[in-house]
Amino acid sequence: MSEADDRPAPRVLIAADKFKGSLTAVQVAAHVTAGLRAVAPDLAVESLPVADGGDGTVDAAVAAGFGRRTVRVTGPLGEPVEAAYALRGATAVVEMAEASGLRYLPPGVFAPLTATTYGTGELLRAALDAGARTVVLGVGGSATTDGGAGMLSALGVRLLDRAGVPLAPGGAALADLAEADVTGLDPRLAAARIVLAGDVDNPLLGPKGAAAVYGPQKGASPADVAVLDAALGRYARALAAALGPEAARAAEAPGAGAAGGMGYGALAALGAAFRPGIEVMLDVLGFAAALERADLVVTGEGSLDEQTLHGKAPAGVARAARARGLDVVAVCGRLALTPAQLAAAGIRRAYALADLEPDPARSMSLAGPLLEQAAAQLARDVLGPAS
């Protein structure tokens, strides 16, 4: 028997995000595990599904041992929806898309002027009721451009017009805002630590702001964008008048424009601290400890592209793993990065489902079996004869 045969098989950590539209992060880990073990049946594999604060963040926390809590809250159109958050001890993970996400809009229907984040505020309140003192607020996938006004209303802030009447839901109504009465803001927030976890660093207002950059994705016309940007500006001035200069500065802070400006509401009124979502989630999920047990890391997401390099989950995983001297390989639905870009991100090589099935519709519908094929090839290439 050769020395290579005597070497212990590497311990593999699968830390991949979802393949949007086809597989959850948990399913990705299961299919990669099956593919690896088809080649190396006794391989030691640990799964730690990850997320960057957007869709799937609660699922990733639950997979890491958090408990799932379900609450009935107000959806973005005002209808009741079932939303979940995750809780472990005094730490909660709240995903705004669970309450205020695009997933709740009928196909082809958008409500850029009227969609509300009220349900996200209700989720935060439920987490505080359950004893949370640290809340990770994941932002992404929102249907809203209300600056977090709905969220703050659910937490006790009164947003009033000149007649002292509470405003209607949505970002457009903020054009009539005369006063932000913050005296009723839930007092538990003062003692809580709120972490705003996102992957965009846009300010609240202007050409790089919430309305201009993300409003069109939520159905906003150019005229709607102008209305929303002006309304958000009025909102920021009202909060600054109520809360002081820190609230004014928060409008320019990185992350203020996240989730239709909900980042601003959290930064200005909840005292939130902004951190890149993948960094927050890796801390919360116990990624550092998992790395200590690993020799090889497999990461990935549906599309490895330029966006991946700007704060998405695989880049964060690779950065942390390579800092420990670990090899990183990736799986994905489609690959739009060069080998040099992958190497610069700390990824040794990537395996794309599109290489096995070029038709995008078939690739998505057959994502599970194709991912097992890709993982089997990964095992043959990377684990070598010792597998």
Describe the 3D structure.
The protein has helices spanning 3-6, 25-39, 57-63, 96-100, 118-129, 149-154, 210-214, 222-243, 245-250, 258-269, 277-285, 287-292, 313-323, 339-344, 360-365, 367-383; strands at 12-14, 45-47, 67-74, 80-88, 91-95, 134-138, 158-160, 179-181, 193-198, 273-276, 296-304, 327-335, 349-352. The protein is of the alpha/beta class. The protein folds into 2 domains: 3-48 and 286-386, Rossmann fold (3-Layer(aba) Sandwich), CATH 3.40.50; 57-278, Glycerate kinase, domain 2, CATH 3.90.1510. The mean pLDDT is 94. It comes from Actinacidiphila acididurans. This is Glycerate kinase. One of its GO terms (molecular function) is kinase activity.
